[in-house]
Write a structure and sequence with these properties.
This protein has one domain. The protein is 25% helix and 27% strand. The protein is built from two helices and three strands; from the N terminus they run αβββα. The protein has a three-stranded antiparallel β-sheet with strand order 1-2-3.
Length: 56
Amino acid sequence: MQPLREQCKEISSVFNGVDCVAVDLKEKRVTVVYDLEKVSLQTIKDTIEDQGYDVK
């Protein structure tokens, strides 16, 4: 598996407070690097669920 930095996709221009997102389809896992001072974990979860995905 690649280090997170190598597989991370920059989305900070799209989602304020989120630096990058890495998706592992095989493991059905998403890793999100974000700034707690700019966005809450609940906002990220809600956004993922709004796209039709389950969040555990």
